[in-house]
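User: quick one
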Amino acid sequence: MSMIVNEDIKVVDCTVRDGGLINKWKFSDGMVEAVYSSLLKSGVDYMEIGYRASEKLFDPKEYGVWRFSKEEKIRNVAGRKPDSMKLGVMVDIGRVETEDFLPKEESFVDFVRVATYLKDIAKAVEIANIVGELGYEPFINIMAISTVNEHDLAKGLEQIERDTNVTAVTVVDSYGALYPDDVKYLVELFRRVLKKKRTGFHGHNNQQLGFANTIQALQSGATFCDATVNGIGRGAGNCPMELLLAWLKNPKYNMEPILQVIQDHFVRLGKEEIEWGYIIPYMITGILNEHPRTAIALRDSERKDHYADFYRQLTTPECFK
Amino acid sequence: MSMIVNEDIKVVDCTVRDGGLINKWKFSDGMVEAVYSSLLKSGVDYMEIGYRASEKLFDPKEYGVWRFSKEEKIRNVAGRKPDSMKLGVMVDIGRVETEDFLPKEESFVDFVRVATYLKDIAKAVEIANIVGELGYEPFINIMAISTVNEHDLAKGLEQIERDTNVTAVTVVDSYGALYPDDVKYLVELFRRVLKKKRTGFHGHNNQQLGFANTIQALQSGATFCDATVNGIGRGAGNCPMELLLAWLKNPKYNMEPILQVIQDHFVRLGKEEIEWGYIIPYMITGILNEHPRTAIALRDSERKDHYADFYRQLTTPECFK
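Assistant: Done. Structure below.
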């Protein structure tokens, strides 16, 4: 029930960023401030507070402020730039413009994570280099990793290794399809190719493996790990921060402020407003290695609990439907 | 996302037996019949339908029928003795009498699992031998395994190895405190001592590791694994059957009937009647390696969602309370 503390391991929170995928980032200011201050107290290393995106591409009337994560909003939450926790944003390929970023010295933002599919690696490299030149610490997250072939993956990683200065490249199990064995295999592949970069892991909980796969990734050589408070996140959600901090056993982390913000904000969120966690339709898309969009649509319909019917629908060849 | 099929692995369902710990086994006949027939269709190897206990020791007015699992009740559910699935009951030390068992040839019961704490191993051996002599297939489950020292454990296992004919001895993580590493260590210890017996694993989901720990146990040499439909079970619940069958990849198993019974019965159970799953107070007792009774009491009180307060209460030395 213990492990040797590994001081190299860094914890990245993406509570607001990933949780916002459920409600279009329409969290109250009070909730985001409470998450921020609980993370600061708990000793988490990196907080990815939202997506950075151009208002030309998303309608601010439809999306909450953390779809854009403007500088002034981050300043309002943080008050002053924290010493012990780095603040950052995620950007999607094609949904951000260079002008969306200030020079680093004028910003509270420390790091930028570029989320990409493997096919778009060249674009991700370009953006990572642009934000790197602006002074931000760049990362690349490779999404939907359970759907790529390893030959292509190795080539993509070689390109990142050669052409960028990213701190880490993150294995993202977008569909919650990976088993611990798969995570070990992928992280070891990343470690072999990425000699000058670190490896991260971002799990999803479709099969109740978000936390277990994160443990496996860290035991296989990853040193960055993503988590969210109470596991909040689209669909089945993510690796829960409270479990991860308790497992890490590093005295610099403290789980108690995370429990406090769950008590104060997440109980209500989960009961009244939004849904996440182990729910059968997300389990089904996970085992089928599919995007959760069909499960999200099911949960939004009157047939939300028709699990067996949903499984038959997804697994019956079209011609028999 | 695949594994080599291991034909030696046997799946043990304990949906009604473990789930009944939440509601004193007061399930409707329709629910138990639906679970039985879905398990039969899904290819599960063993169904532990309830506890067998003496009515002298438990008041039948207070407890449902699966606290006793009388022969006629089992016959009512099964209709006829199934060919492809073994039926069994669990007994607790000191809560059962020899007269509670018919000779095997007059019974639908195939197997009996003796649940014991390590300190009571000598009594468990005695009961396992009595039911074995009556013709039943005996098992021993060692509960609260996260609290024992290994020196005592090895001696207990040696006694079982030497003095019984049990099919398997099961590692029971009653408190949901084990991490995959611990499971590997314990299963390997069991395998070293138990040369003529098989090893089983029964997980709890306090830290969202019920399924992951079951995978780990099977990959470390266990060949019996416990699960429950939708993970139902006291507190945080157990390894979910639907996840386990999907992972096993053995074509003899079919997950679809499990999804059907979840759709037909468990959605309502979870919404209206009883509670189980990843809930913070059970996570807290799990990481503290404690019995969930304090968490159960909290969930039954008005302070049910005061998670941080509960954590402080359990971790503050008495003198500071």
